[in-house]
Amino acid sequence: MIKINLLPQKRRVERRQETSQLWLAVVLMLFLAEVAGLFVFHGYKNEQLKERQRVNRELESQIDQAKRAVANHGEVKQKLEQLRAKEDAIAKLQSARTGPTAVLLELARIMTPGRGPTVDPERLSQMRCENPLAVFNPGWDARRLWLTKFVEQQRKVRLEGVARDGEDVSELARRLQLSSLFHDVRLLPAKKQRDAKTGLDLVTFQLEAQVRY
Asked: Within 10 A of 113 (CB to CB), how many other CB atoms are there?
């Protein structure tokens, strides 16, 4: 009778089964770890996607606002131009209403004895130092000159009158040129004549100037 010992073989089979089960457990753990990692990575990427979508929505909103602003730019510009045109028209009307009055008041000041043109004191002092003949004569008697005509059109003034002599006409032109309301003063040819009533020799003159207002 032959006896066979099967115990070692049985142990080897059990060891193989234990090893297979161990490897299976390791593989399963690795698989589960990979699945968990994939879930974490997916969540992270999903949060990144949501943040990118939020930024994109903000950018699209800003772009839409910019487009609306640009779309209204022409209309806004046109309205501003219309408002400026209205302001300029109002300013011109106001100037046209008050300007001639200011010119007449300045002319009256120039023709008043003891007074003179409206001029910056510093400018007058400098001119007096540089050329005393260029400033007006404060002692001039304005009663030596009479204005017979005053015409203003498109800010251009034409004066006509009679004076005792040519120096009186020059004094008037000098005062007008110094005034802040007159400029480009120009004397036209004058002529002498004898007054029939008084017998005095007089000078009839014409003068043109531009006015500021």
From this structure: 11
Among residues 100, 211, 111, the alpha carbon closest in space to that of 161 is found at: 111
Instruction: Summarize the confidence of residues 98-114 as an average pLDDT.
Output: 85
Domain residue ranges of the chain, discontinuous segments joined by +: 101-211
* Cα distance between residue 130 and residue 70, in whole Å: 58
For residues 103 and 181, what is the distance between their CA atoms, to the nearest angstrom? 7
Find residue 145's DSSP bridge partners.
Answer: 163
* Tokens matching residue 71: 């779309």
Q: Which helix (H) or strand (E) holds 44?
A: helix 7-110
Task: List beta partners, residue 207.
Answer: 159, 187
End-to-end CA distance of the chain: 147
Mean pLDDT of 123-128: 86
- Rounded distance between C-alpha atoms, residue 54 and residue 66, angstroms: 18
Q: Is the pTM of this model over 0.90?
A: no
